[in-house]
Amino acid sequence: MGFRRRPNPVSDLLIFASVFLFARFTYAKSNGTKAVAITPVNHDLYHTSGALLEEIESLVHRHSDKLSIEKVTSKNKGYEAQMTIVTYNRDRKESDDKAKLRILLTFGQHARELITTELALRLLSILSEEEFLPNVNRSTLNRTLDRLLIKVVPMENLNGRKLVEDGELCERRNGRGVDLNRNWSVDWGKKEKDYDPYEENPGTAPFSEPESQIMRKLSVSFEPHIWVNVHSGMEALFMPYDHKNTTPDGIPSQIMKSMLEELNHLHLKDNCLVGSGGGSVGYLAHGTATDYMYDVARVPMAFTFEIYGDLKASSRDCFKMFNPIDITSFNRVLNDWSAAFFQMFSIGVQQMDGLQSKAIASSFDHWVSMDDYLNGYLMHRKSRYGKKMEVLDLGMQEIRTYFRLFLLSSVLLLFMFCSRISKTTRPLVSAMSL
Questions:
Q1: How many angstroms separate the Cα of 261 from the Cα of each of 205, 257, 279, 304, 347?
Q2: What is the pTM of this model?
């Protein structure tokens, strides 16, 4: 959901605070004391937006057998946004992509969270085999990757990122001041008591922003089974919901939480908060992407990962608060979270295999796509309006089909049997009459 700075909930004091800070800085200089230092972007560690996207484009061209790229543009009321989308398909000759687990990852939704876009580059480098995970058998990993179709949005909020690069280090919104993670339709526009109009401007309406429109269209066309929205500001593994202090009911919720706990334990040293965003982060967020993906787009596993945060940093020192500033921390974050993502890929494939095994046990004699399995998995999911999303359970559907076939075949057999009897009895009747 994106960790929010909370310097002061009363927006009317912002001007006074600015004057106070200026006076404090002047006083500090006159008394030989240090003012609060603002950490600049470390360009030895971090790419500019242009350089990062160029490097990703070059990576795709070098590995066109696995990677493809497209640039999508959308415009609304004079405001235009462009988004780069990279698709990974290790076995592009595979004719049935429906049989693969589809994963959608998005990074850089909040402009100031530069570390997230660096993680996107690292993941793509590992997928293309230009970089490698330590202590991982590549052949085993490749067998997992053969089962996946992954789309990566490495920098969702390009216009906002450019503002950060121009010196607005605390900017998280898009190019016209809208928080993209408040611009989705689930519980859109609701304001909590600690609502910050600067940090959380939801826009004029749900999907008023071109960036959100592009992401919604992508989710509809791609229909992912796993969605991850990557942020920074703290260390956390969040599942729905953001807009209320609860998690969804039932087995799907248990599966999601179990996956997150495994990732946290295996690769993140149990440092992360695990649970619903609304129940863990300390405030409710309305109109978020992850809640939409789970409730409306019906993505079976929808997550928000918060990959780094310096909670001791001043709320005015945004680059330090949201991004590691030394190379040791920088590499640790990228290494740990890269391992966590690939572990998630492996768990996803294992779950797919489990679903397939259950299908085979139910007398399936042909390959069934992941969409059909997960339709059964989504049975009885509720929308935000309380309506049941009646998706047929695939096993029950097949049982009904086979039962109908059994009845039909029984009737045919009975008909054939009766016909046989009638044919064999006619000569006997004739003989008796003689």
A1: 36, 6, 16, 14, 12
A2: 0.78
